Amino acid sequence: MDQTIIKIPEERIGVFLGKNSETLKLLEEKLGLKLEISHNGSVTMEGNADKIYFGKNVIKAIGRGFSPEVALYLVEKDDFMFELIDLDEFLNTENSIHRVKGRIIGSEGKVKIEIEKMADCYISVYGNTVGIIAPFDSISFAKEAIGMIIKGSMISSVMNFLSRKKEEVKISRLMGTTRVS
Asked: Which of 8, 48, 125, 150 places its Cα 20 to 30 Å from the Cα of 105?
């Protein structure tokens, strides 16, 4: 039996637990792990190493703003992956981070929704991070689109890029391959 501890923000503890600890019980069942959470957000995972390996990403995803239902796609769907972009690595002031987060989300969430639709992904902008949960064949270009926004590309250029990539993935899926250039 292995054990690992992951820290999630304290304000995400309620989401992790759920009403009457129902979400915690669901996570334990789906992940095949024993989970305990402390009052400061430390999540202790106990179980087989391979289950902990996959469980870590689910717990991190919940901690970074995803719903437990979406985070569980990482274990329920064979080809889904989790990517976390730390905006602190790219931007040096809180003002520039705030501005970029606003550009990623867009007015009334429209840019985020459009990226999610075009890249077949889920995005969470939480704290100074952007999380992406997506199928293997689209996560790299979803991440690239976010990177383009971080670097200051026009949103229309990002959407054109996503449109091309969406077509490539569509063709790739029809042909039964997973490679997207």
From this structure: 8
Q: Which of 47, 66, 49 lies closest to 9, judged by CA?
A: 66
Residues 95 and 68 in one domain: no
**Contact (CB, 8 A) for 58 and 8:** no
Considering its fold, how many domains does the chain have in total? 2
Q: Which two structure tokens, joined as six digits, stand for 96?
A: 């520039």
Which domain covers residue 133, as residue numbers?
80-175
Contact 66, 122 (CB under 8 A): yes
Question: In this structure, is residue 180 part of a structural domain?
Answer: no
Could you tell me the pTM of the whole model?
0.90
Q: What pLDDT digit, counting tens, does each position of 71-86 carry?
A: 999 999 989 999 999 9
Distance of CA 71 to the CA centre of its chain: 7
Distance (Å, rounded) from C-alpha 136 to C-alpha 73?
12
Contact between 23 and 35 under an 8 Å Cβ cutoff? The reply is: no
